[in-house]
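Subject: Sanity check before I submit

Could someone independently write out the structure tokens for this chain? I want to compare against mine line by line before I put it in a report. The sequence has 543 residues.
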Amino acid sequence: MIFNNSLNFINNSFIFLKKKIHSLYLNSNIYNKKITPSIIESLEYQPSPSLLDSLVKYDKKKINIENYSLNNIWDNKNLKDKDYKNLNSFFWLFSLDLKSSKKDTQIVIQQWIDKNYRYNPKSWEIDIVARRIIAWTSNSRLTYEGGSPQYKNDFSIIIKKQINYLINEIEQSDWVDDKMIVCAAIILTGLSYQGKDGYLDKGLNLLKKFVKFSLDNNGFPKSRNIRQLNFYLKYFILIREWLKESQSEIPEYIDENIYYLGRAYAFTWKNNKADLLFNGNHETNNNDFDHYLTKLGYNFKCQNNEMGGYIILNNKKNSIIMDAGSSPDRKFSSNYQAGVLSFEILSNGKKLICNSGYFQNYDHQLNELSKSSAVHSTLTIDDRSSCKFTNTKNQGSKILQGLKILKKNIVFEKNYWKINSAHDGYLKQYGIIHEREIEFYPEQIKFIGHDKIIFKNSIKNLKFEIRFHLEPNIKIMKTQDNKSILIDLDGEGWKFNSNNNTIDIDNGLYFGKKNSFYNNQNIFISGMTNDENQTIKWEITKL
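---
Independent answer below. Compare away.
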């Protein structure tokens, strides 16, 4: 233990020293000269701002830049990190009324350039830089047109300077999402400044490398994060539309990955129209994105029952979704949650059973809680999660010990559905395999579940719990005989019961809305293991 702690200390010290030296280099005159472009060009391609509609949150009312104090906009040192990032990313430009003063807009940008002409560790964070370039270029009617020759030169120099920085530093980022945005910014700059810098080819090659690194053979994110899937699809379509609008050649791999990502999007969203709360996802209504896709002529379809480690079975009225995938590699696990074999049930588009969601703020203690097995509709042993996590500063907790799916079987017929799967998350520590089987009888509208605790080693007297989480405001109550739970799902009546097991109602927390939490309830079955295989049967029936 002492030896391991010493090694960790040495390793962390080395990483700290390495980052310190690199930061000094970025602030040096040598580096500043290295990234400063020698060729100054005019902005040729000016993309339509509307192509960003899938990524921009617009204010209900357009604003005029003249309504704001412009003299001290960059002097406010009391901004929260979130506000600072929003301000320096310039995505607020998309909320400006096009009748806003070009002169005032360009004054604000010139002020920023004057204060940030050299590398600044805060305003030059990789994701902020990439977003800023996209925002400036996409709003060129305000940010570039009508500017003085000197302003246009300063504008073009700082863009290219930041792009050179991104090309040099993209590999330094631990965040896969940031790499996607960086690729987009480099490609857009290559389209806008069609000179000898080769930004377009560099950006497209980096994007191709990104695909190989972060997506599996079916085009699903290796993180298994549904939110990330939607994010990648939006950026791939954006890049394709830039290429199309600028009359540039569209590489085959871009169309190929849009096809795979689009199919996965149809699988996880279009067939259910519900946010599936697994592995980093939270409530996000994608209806606006659907309209965006229709407007641009994209129509994704998918008839698969399984993809990315998820199983989805549905008809017009009922859906069941289960996480039946192995844990991702550690480098993709920042947003992974230990919810293996957890499931969600939808009835007429409403969540009957759900998971508790994900608290995305890595600095908050609730982030770690939201990754635990206990906040998922699955089985836990000894109050432990099926995966072990280790905390990594500013990157969320990553997998220390993962798990593998051992079996998987799907039956999907008109009058009978079945999902059967098992995992080894509790095998190493407790000698236990958890196997879950869920059957659905559409005509009776009845779900029957069997959770099996299978012993490979002789360990007994361990506490087990099986939780079934509910969305906030869903009303539940015990029956008078204490053997069943009644659920009121917005006027629909459902009954939950279990065979010879203690069932109860517990209070919990719901994290489905981004970085917020609400009180909710869950039904739970509890008991003790013995040294024999056990099967816990439960039923959920519509009344």
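---
OP: Matches mine. For the report I'm noting this point. The CA atoms of residues 282 and 402 lie 22 Å apart.
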